[in-house]
Structure formats: C-alpha cells, structure tokens
Amino acid sequence: MKRSVSAIYDELARNETRGRYGPIKAHHQAYVRRKYSKYQGMKIVKNPGLREFVEKELLNDQSPTNISGRIKKHEKCLLPVSKNIVYKYIKSPYGRRIEHHRNKQKNRRRRRRRGSSKKLQGRTFIDKRPQYINERQRIGDAEADFLVSGRSGKGIILNITGRKSRAAFLEQIIAVTIDNVHLSFKRIKKRFPELKTITTDNDLPLERHKELEKLLKIKIYFCHQYHSWEKGTVENSNKYVRRDIPKGSDISKYSKRFTRFLERKLQRRYMNCLDHFTPAEMLENHRKRKKRRSVKEK
C-alpha cells in the first residue's frame, strides 16, 4: 500500500468498529469528524448573507483573495473575512460543491509549438510606444490576442483587454479571414469606443494592419517575436477564458452567446490592481466622469 506501519495502525485504531475495519464506515466517520471540527470557516457558515455572497462569487470564479478584499472595501454590510477563512470554507464539507467546481477549472498546461511565421511588413514595435501607455495612464490603450482552436477544430476568439481598466472584449470568428477579423475589431470598437491604441502579437490575421489602423482610427504596436510577456494584460485575461474554453477545444462548438457570457464574466472580476473594483465599474466610472466634463464645458 506504500504507507508506513504507523499510519495503517492509526487508521485501524481510529476507525475500527467491534474489532473490524470497514472502509465505507471509516470514510463516513472521517466525514463526520471533519464536518463538526472547528477547522472549517465557521464564520461563513453561521452568516447566511455572507455565505450566499461568498458561494456566488466563488462559483463565478472569483479568487478568495479578491472576495476578501471586495468585502472589506466595498461590501460594508457583510462581515469581513480573510482569504484564509474563505479557503478553509472551500475545503470544509460545506464547500464540497465549490471545491468540485474549482477542480474542474484546473487544466493541464500544454506546450505551445513554435512554427515558422511570415513576417509582417511595416510594423511599429513596442519600443516606440509612448511612456504614458507603458504607465497605464489613460483608458483606451489596449492589448489584443487570438485564442485558437485545437488541431481538429476551427475558429478563433479575438480578445481585446484594456491596459488600465482591464476590461476584456471577446469576439468569436469561425471563418478566419482578414476581412472577418477586421469586422470583429469594428464590433469591439462599438462596445469600447474609447479604444485608441492596441499592442499585439505578430499574427497573420493582422497582415493588413495599416488598413486596420485607418479603419479603427487607432495606432497598432507589435511585440517582438515570441515575447508574449510584453502584452501580459491580455495574456492574464486569456488565462481566465481558458478555464471555460480549454486549450485544444474546438471553438466553433461554442455559441456566440456563450462568448458574450464569458466577456461579462471577465468584466465582473474583482481585481486587486483596481482596488477591488471590477473592470466594468472602472469603465462606467470613467464614462460618467467624461459625461460630467462634457456637460460642464457646454
């Protein structure tokens, strides 16, 4: 069994019933001991409002750290809890459903194969990007990337994520042509009219990037070859998309409604870098301030 003698002895001594050991009975006894011990996050269990909020946000794939920060800073009607208490609640018998949900989200990492890529002409590299973009000083500077299907699948997802607001916008493209890619960029520009610049990879769908710049009235900057960390904001956003659309999936099997659901889900994330506001709240506050300024100028 590859266990020490003492571990087996302790297990038998703890869970024997009338001199006999039954694995089903032992499992139940362990469950009961765990349920009524003080190990779990009893603070959450004893407060229905707090428990409802924590469970809802955990099932919405919020992290325990961000849930704790959100409660402390913005949900004053709820009792404050630390991230450790939330983790203990997940591991307790009361959090079995949540623990199962979180385990499903853990996907095995796969190595990305580097193939030969055609060089795009007339690119402006990230070295020439202004300092105010590097420092995330304004809303409207974004990063873009494509999430591709597995070998047997077809279709891609365009992800544009704001550098300052962290608001992600997704568009599904089944027939991957340059015209369809440009059309998807235009659709996102309608939902994100503040868009001014994009930093992206050297992907072939951006071969006519000069035409795209004129179409969207923006400036496009390119990362260096195989330097994906130069657009870390959208890479982080991709990580959360991949929880629901794992690598190797056939993107064409997912509906456009599901893609929009993922977009709203990403924009509802509590983020420490935003002082535990959500990207949607950041954008909304920015638009309200802009509207007030325009009213004053009139």
Automatic annotation (TrEMBL):
Gene3D superfamilies: Ribonuclease H-like superfamily/Ribonuclease H. Coiled coil: none annotated. Residues 98-121 have a biased composition (Basic residues). It comes from the Bacteria. Residues 126-287 form the Integrase catalytic domain. GO terms for biological process: DNA integration; transposition. GO terms for molecular function: nucleic acid binding; transposase activity. InterPro entries: Integrase_cat-core, RNaseH-like_sf, RNaseH_sf, Transposase-Integrase, Transposase_IS30-like. GO terms for cellular component: cytosol. Residues 96-121 are annotated as: Disordered. This is Integrase catalytic domain-containing protein.
